[in-house]
Amino acid sequence: MPKSPRRRNPRRKKPRPDTGFVLSFVREVLELEQTDVAEILEVTPGTVSDYERGEITKSREETERIAAKFAVSPQSLDVVFEGIAAVRRDGGRDAALLPIPIAKAARAALARVGAQALRQIQENLLEKALAIQVHVDRRHAQWIWGKFEHAHPKWNSDAEVLRRSIEREPRFATWAFAELLADRSLATAPELPKIALVLGELALRSAEGATASAIFLDHLQAKALATIGNARRVLGFLPDSVRSFLDARKLWPEGAPSPGNILSEALLFDLEASLRRDQRLFADAHTLLDQAFVLTPAGPARGRHLLIRSSVFEQQRDAEGSIGALRQSLAEFGEDCPMHRRMGSLLLLAVNLDHLGRHTESLEVIPMARHLAIEVGSDPNLLRLLWLEARAWAALGRRQEALAPFDQVRRDFKARGHLHDAALAGLELAILYLEEEQTAATRELATELTVVFRDMGIVREKLVAVWLFLESAEREAATVELAKQAAAALRAYFREQAVFKR
């Protein structure tokens, strides 16, 4: 009767690494000296040397216990020694393929290769695990924000309601939620700077309570402080903005690498460049943008830096330089340029064309920018586009078409509390009234502007040309030249004030 086939053990036999090889391996992984290993094992360095030379051997169980003292698991040993065993196996299929036998002297080389391979595996796995965790944390933060928006659809209309509601959120203090709040602050700042300031302050509080490495939390708080500084800049509180950026740099010194590359220092350079632009420190703004550009790969982020650079050129009255930076910015954004960025680019292009006196081209750009501004719901930019349109019509001799838009712009800016813009638009409207010989309308407008200037704290000694015009208009004796001188003096005054605020 034929014998039944022999049943194989389904459990695969573990490779049996010798003790000396294990100690060589862990020394390479952990970068230890033989004296360090001897101290951990509580033996002499000579004993460690005997282990590594193969003079002393231990069982697999004892070898695993030795490895465990160095936090090396049996599974880690298996991964490395499976491959090594195949090479070192006497009489095995793999060994038969070798042209010559492997000498014992190859132990150290094999240990080094195995250690390097394990380190590489660990680094790759940790990098992938970190990327997955970052993605999960960010998605969770977005989910929390989505629930908050659903529960509070008018969150952006009341700063205190926003603050109280977010602070009550039980999952408030996480790194990803702090990052999300900071990003929301940046997105909100152009339209709602007071809300943006609250979001930045909430981002800072969230970062202070989050769990992460100390350096990463410092950098996260620095990002939150930078968004606070950005909101303060938009609100016109430039000295406070400067202090916010100084505090941010204490937590994230310039050039310090960020753990895991989750956060980018380029944002700090980018936002501070906007502050220096508003302070009219143009050379500093360009230097900061250069630093941001170096840290940023090609694509939308670089497009943002170039858009800010374009605005710096515009403030310098370098319209051609600004238009050149705008073209580069749109090329970096590509076809997928966000709607609000494209709208901002077209608005800036219209401003530069106005500076260059190319009013017909400006009128061609404005309708496209207006369509995008309506799509994104940007009322302040709609107002600025209307202002540019009125200026173009006036410059092209279409004064009757410009009168109503100028008046609307002036009134709306005043209602929004943008007194600087309301005053400038009012003086430009006064020039039109005088050119049309509407002295009564000029007198009525001058009365309203007098209240605006007093509300702004601008006394006669500060702006003699403006008050001379207002006084002349009250007597119906104002001239176009007086109105132009007043407008020029007011623009110069506002530029000086921006420098003074630094």
Can you give a write-up of this model?
The chain has 502 residues and is mostly helical. Helix content is 74%, strand content 0%. It is built from 24 helices and no strands. The protein has helices spanning 19-30, 34-41, 45-53, 60-68, 74-88, 93-96, 107-151, 159-167, 175-188, 193-209, 214-235, 238-251, 266-278, 282-295, 300-315, 319-333, 339-355, 359-376, 379-395, 399-416, 419-435, 439-455, 464-474, 480-500. Helix 1 runs parallel beside helix 4. The radius of gyration is 35 Å and the shape is elongated. The termini are far apart. 36% of the residues are buried. The model is unreliable at 4-16 (pLDDT under 50).
Task: Jot down its keywords.
mainly alpha; 502 residues; 24 helices
Summarize the structure in short.
The chain is mainly alpha-helical.
H/E series, N to C? Answer: HHHHHHHHHHHHHHHHHHHHHHHH
Strand elements, count:
0
- Average pLDDT, rounded to a whole number, is 85
Helix content: over 70%
Kindly provide the radius of gyration, computed on alpha-carbon positions and rounded to a whole number of angstroms: 35 Å
Bulk shape: elongated
Q: Major β-sheet, in short?
A: none
What distance lies between the first and last C-alpha atoms, to the nearest angstrom? 103 Å
Structural class: mainly alpha
Beta percentage is: under 5%
Number of helical stretches of at least 4 residues: 24
Low-confidence stretches: 4-16
Which helices and strands appear, and what pairs or packs with what?
Blueprint: H1 19-30, H2 34-41, H3 45-53, H4 60-68, H5 74-88, H6 93-96, H7 107-151, H8 159-167, H9 175-188, H10 193-209, H11 214-235, H12 238-251, H13 266-278, H14 282-295, H15 300-315, H16 319-333, H17 339-355, H18 359-376, H19 379-395, H20 399-416, H21 419-435, H22 439-455, H23 464-474, H24 480-500
Helix pairs in contact: 1-3, 1-4, 1-7, 2-3, 5-7, 7-9, 8-10, 9-10, 9-11, 10-11, 11-12, 11-13, 12-13, 13-14, 13-15, 14-15, 15-16, 15-17, 16-17, 17-18, 17-19, 18-19, 19-20, 20-21, 21-22, 21-24, 22-23, 23-24
